[in-house]
């Protein structure tokens, strides 16, 4: 039996899962790690903590699966994407804490670049917007604010990478400095049409080329792990950013297929085949690159989804555990006109307002804990509707089905409300942690365990389908209330 070890390094936790060739989980391990908030709007991670946790979790997952490293056909890595690490090539030590994708410290730098008229050029080359979400301004900030970093980077002494790149470096003990096309496409430095680091973009953001990793296909041989880490040298054969990995795990291989992942944030991705320019402030991005051929996608990002439930639990102490939300929402039925706009770190697509802040609107004397919690769940659904509306406008057709995954969708009430708010069928797969599964599939493709995407698609199974039950007029009335609530917190209208 051949096994694949999947590393799924997320925003709030790291996990390792051992899959067999049929895509069944045989053993896993998971651990939350510290979030650092040194200033308002800043979010940081300790990259060395992430690496140490990841290694320990890989070892634990193998033990739990009763699988030895020599039985592994390959390792796949999927990761929080735009999070930025800068480290010393000689020692392998980070120069500072990693700047997380949620971090907004470079909002003013992005605004200055927009004011200078650079956004069209950036968007044409990268498919992205000038937003602090992406890696380039984070990396520039590190180079300018860590003492001595810029001259050392220019001298070739430092390495930059997203978390996949950082883990690959550590797994190979510094022998491989590489990433894949999906992660590269989230940096604001990569030309997605030419599939190269772009000289004009490097100049714009003042990034020395010497810090950049090699960009590879999403499946293929990246390098071998150092034998003493896991007990054998294992090929790392698949890498993709978390949302692209989920696209693969959901077997969305035909243009028009859409998946949405609900974790800390929410990310909706539509396979478009060829690159589609968005006129609704979505991102054109790399879905995956296999055998040198790039498949493109449209993506909309919601910064806060599960994080809103964490806030209700940890910030307001309204619940003790996320599992309580389903019963509370069933009791309430709906939020009754209460809207939670979770713009804690600004708003993502299609608003792209880094200065927006959260609000709880529509409160009355009848509002209780159940209504506020329900509003938190409904906010996820309304934000999903924002994204699906934008995708349909860009592509000219409304999808009939949405494939969902992530920790939040085990909540049946949420999945049903998604179907009601969107007006489409919502399909939940047998395996809801499809991000890790997608990384495993890519690794399997990289070593020939699967001979084609069709072979992967045959493994996808629907666990439950949710069909819309809400009357169309009521659906529109509730959604209009959401749009009005968002307008209250936005600093500028969408589209500006």
Give a verbal description of the structure.
The chain is an alpha+beta fold. It has a domain at 3-243: Nucleotidyltransferase, domain 5 (2-Layer Sandwich). The chain is built from 17 helices and 23 strands. It has a seven-stranded mixed beta sheet, sandwiched between helices. Strands 3-2-1-5-14-13 form a six-stranded mixed beta sheet, with helices on both faces. The longest helix has 27 residues, at 369-395. The protein is globular, with a radius of gyration of 21 Å. The mean pLDDT is 93.
CATH architecture title of the domain at 3-243: 2-Layer Sandwich
Strand order of the largest sheet: 17-18-16-15-21-22-23
Instruction: Estimate the strand proportion.
Output: 15-25%
Q: CATH superfamily membership of the domain at 3-243, which one? A: ATPase, nucleotide binding domain
Largest sheet: 7 strands, mixed
Number of strands: 23
List the uncertain runs. Answer: none
Number of helices: 17
Helix % is 25-40%
Q: What structural class do helix, strand and pairing data support?
A: alpha+beta
Question: Layout of helices and strands, plus pairs?
Answer:
Blueprint: E1 3-9, E2 13-20, E3 25-32, E4 44-45, H1 47-65, E5 72-79, E6 85-88, E7 98-99, H2 107-115, H3 119-126, H4 135-145, H5 149-154, E8 158-161, H6 163-171, E9 178-180, H7 181-184, E10 190-191, E11 196-197, H8 199-205, E12 214-216, E13 219-224, H9 227-230, E14 235-241, H10 242-249, E15 258-262, E16 266-273, E17 283-290, E18 293-302, H11 306-315, H12 325-332, E19 339-341, E20 359-361, H13 369-395, E21 401-405, H14 412-422, E22 425-429, H15 434-446, H16 453-457, E23 462-466, H17 472-489
Parallel strand pairs: 1-5, 5-14, 9-12, 15-21, 21-22
Antiparallel strand pairs: 1-2, 2-3, 4-7, 6-8, 10-11, 13-14, 15-16, 16-18, 17-18, 19-20, 22-23
Helix pairs in contact: 1-6, 10-15, 11-13, 12-13, 13-14
